[in-house]
Amino acid sequence: MDLKITTLAGKDAGKVKLSEEIFGLEPREDILARVVRWQLAKKQQGTHQAKGRADIARTGAKMYKQKGTGRARHHSARAPQFRGGGKAHGPVVRSHEFDLPKKVRALGLKHALSAKAKSSSLIVIDELKLTEAKTKALVENFASLGLTNALFIGGAEVDQGFKRAASNIPNIDVLPIQGINVYDILRRGTLVLSKAAIEALEERFK
Q: Model's pTM, two decimal places?
């Protein structure tokens, strides 16, 4: 698969041949959904907690005598059925993370890249660098490329000037190649890869 390379200014910079094994697959929604669910579960904090009966600060004395009242044989006022008592089976601090095989994760990334390529939402730029780190200039460049909602993936090191200028623009994310992931690819309208990012991806999946 051949794709045109452009510069940030929108000028033609040649062509690049993309691997069919990475960018030419038929996207499978089930695999993409599995990987996104795994990512979001791993990201979830799990710091929610309700007070159980053991966490309630209340006297442990028996509420009233066992016999002769005609009432139920209650003991502790911390029990869940009483106002101010503990919560029964409430949420506790825990990790929501679960395991997903490495092969499925790798396949999910390939399918996400292929989905962007298939929908013509993939752009290759020669390098993500700015001579002057100004947001205004970058906004003009994005306008010439028709980018309003995009994820930019650079090489191992992202140009700090580009990253700082892009951080002020809404709906634009910038990541190094190590941070590429299925969720961020799918949540943005366009995927923009640098030549260095493509080389790193092909080396990774070799």
A: 0.82
DSSP state of 184: H
SS3 195: helix
Identify the CA nearest to 188 among candidates 178, 175, 204.
175
Sheet containing 190-194: order of strands: 12-17, 2-6, 122-125, 190-194, 150-153, 172-175
How far is residue 126's CA from residue 5's CA, in Å, rounded to a whole number?
Answer: 6
Distances (CA, A) of 136 to 65, 99, 140, 146, 187: 78, 43, 6, 15, 24
> Taking a C-beta distance cutoff of 8 angstroms, is the pair 191, 23 a contact?
no
Residues 182-204: tens digit of each pLDDT: 999 999 999 999 999 999 999 99
The sign of the torsion formed by the CA atoms of 19, 24, 29, 30 equals negative
Angle at Cα 198 formed by Cα 149 and Cα 101, nearest 5°?
Answer: 85
Q: Which letter does DSSP use for residue 24 in this model?
A: S
Closest CA to 45 of 93, 102, 98: 93
74: which 2 tokens?
């209650």
State the amino acid at position 32 in one-letter form.
Answer: L
Q: Which residues pair with 6 in a beta bridge?
A: 12, 125
The answer to whether 116 and 75 have CB atoms below 8 angstroms apart is no
Task: State the Cα–Cα distance between residues 78 and 69, nearest whole angstrom.
Answer: 20
